[in-house]
User: Fold this.
Amino acid sequence: MKDRIAKIEKDAKEALNKIVDRQTLNEIKIKYLGRKSELSDIFKEMATLAKEEKPVIGSLVNKARNNIEEIIRQKEAEIEKQELEMKLENEKIDITLPGTKVKKGSKHPVNSVIEEIEDLFVSMGYTVESGPELETDRFCFELLNLPEGHPARDMQDSFYITDEYLLRTQTSAVQARTMLANKDKTPIRMICPGKTYRREDDATHSHQFTQAEGLVIDENISLADLKGTLEIFAKRIIGENSKLRFRPSYFPFTEPSYEVDVTCFKCGGKGCNLCKQTGWIEVLGSGMVHPNVLRMCGYDPEKYSGFAFGVGLERIAMFKYGIPDMRYLYANDIRFLSQF
Ligand code: DAH
Assistant:
């Protein structure tokens, strides 16, 4: 019996040594340790042994069992490790492979102009304000000295949503908002870039466009301040050699009012097809804030005066970047946009 036990152990060790997979390991486990294994048979046969032999053989069987169990445990650990290594190997990510490129967009030319204007005016102590695009008649017109029925309303065909609400036709609405919001009636220096909307449907106009508004209110503000400020604006934003020309005009919220032309950036003022041979291109509207507007917005016109201007940013972007057609700015064509 001793020999049989030793042989079983030896066989089991040999069989286990060759094993590389989990399934054979399980089969061997059943063969050598299961209920129908030879070691179980020996246990049963022990009943026939002499009394003093029983503990000796019993302990040998147990020892053999323990030894085989131990080897199986080691094998199991070995196989687990191998499996894990195989998994790691198979699921390895090759980080040296070139990745899929994330395409970076570029700044829209109108946004570039907005950022430049903001930088310039912030450097001169202005704040950057904003207002709602869905505006009330009161801010868009009434507080700007354009009461209901005023003929100048006809110049701005509007998208009315209700009798009271419309898509703002001009960033000038933010002038009134800023003045009214300033409860202490302290001086104001602000610009407001933003979207504006009008009912336009011809080839050179878009129903949505972008303006920047400027407003300065303080004591002793004069036309000289407006001129100086706009000159800096033209030189910095449009071109160092730009000259300005002020033409008398009419806006209900300014008195006096001016339309401002800048020397043609294409021909430098000599005359070409862009400026229709005049040498000048109109870029903005401006003027001294009308006393009625000051009064309606809570500023005493005897004490305060101010200037304001409004500039169309699509035109500025077209000048700056030599864009021949305004519609390119909104066609969303990647071939156009990726050039900036
Ligand atoms: N809001 C005017 C427009 O859209 C432009 C304008 C003119 C703005 C004169 C002003 C201004 O602030 O003083 O046509």
User: Anything to note?
Assistant: The two ends are 93 Å apart (CA to CA). The pocket of 3,4-dihydroxyphenylalanine is lined by residues 170, 172, 213, 251, 254, 285-287, 308-310 (CB under 6 Å).
